[in-house]
Amino acid sequence: MSRLCKIVVAITAGIAAFAVISVIALPIGLHYYDSATKKALLRVVAQQLPPRSSMSDMQEFMRRHTTRYAFNDLHGHDYSGFLPQTSLDRFLFDRGVQIVLYVNADQTFRSADVRVYYTWL
Q1: Total Cβ atoms within 10 A of residue 98
Q2: How many CB atoms lie within 10 A of CB 31?
Q3: How do residues 28-76 score in pLDDT, each as one tens digit?
Q4: 89 to each of 47, 59, 80, 106, how far by Cα in Å?
Q5: Cα–Cα distances in Å, from 56 out to 49, 62, 103?
Q6: How many Cα atoms are found within 13 Å in the side-chain-facing hemisphere of 26?
Q7: Integer Cα distance of 103 and 100 in angstroms
Q8: SS in 3 state form for the chain?
Q9: Are 84 and 64 spatial neighbours (Cβ–Cβ below 8 Å)?
Q10: What is the pLDDT of residues 2-29, one digit of tens each?
Q11: How many domains does the structure of the chain reveal?
């Protein structure tokens, strides 16, 4: 086999490996990383905010754990805020992690959710 042919085969194999990593391995890895993030944050919420916690407790929680947060009293009645971005988050397609605290009609803590956003597009 000629040297040029070997180079073409090596380049083709490299492109194929990159495609497999990009299309299959990267999304699977991000899914597991996001899932671990959600579980860890929901565990923190469960430890620090018992059911029916007050608005001031929720506000203090958001102040401690997020960079910016707001209470939505028009639609849904929830506190939502974004965690500080790490250098890994910025590297991972500008990843943003949001904590949402849902509030009962009597203005007490009901439940929480964690959402992960990728804003690189």
Answers
A1: 16
A2: 11
A3: 888 999 999 999 999 999 999 999 999 999 999 999 999 999 999 888 7
A4: 25, 25, 19, 36
A5: 11, 10, 12
A6: 9
A7: 10
A8: CCHHHHHHHHHHHHHHHHHHHHHHHHHHHHHHHHHHHHHHHHHHHHHHCCCCCCHHHHHHHHHHHCCEEEEECCCCCEEEEECCCCHHHHHCCCEEEEEEEEECCCCCEEEEEEEEEECCC
A9: no
A10: 888 888 888 888 888 877 777 787 788 8
A11: 1
Host domain of residue 44? 3-118
Give yes or no for a contact between 112 and 49, defined as CB atoms under 8 angstroms apart. yes
CA–CA dist 58, 53 (Å, integer):
7
Structural tokens at position 92: 């991972």
Calculate the alpha carbon distances from 2 to 5, 14, 37 in Å: 5, 19, 50
Whether residue 81 contacts residue 66, with contact meaning beta carbons closer than 8 Å, is answered with: yes
Q: What is the pTM of this model?
A: 0.79
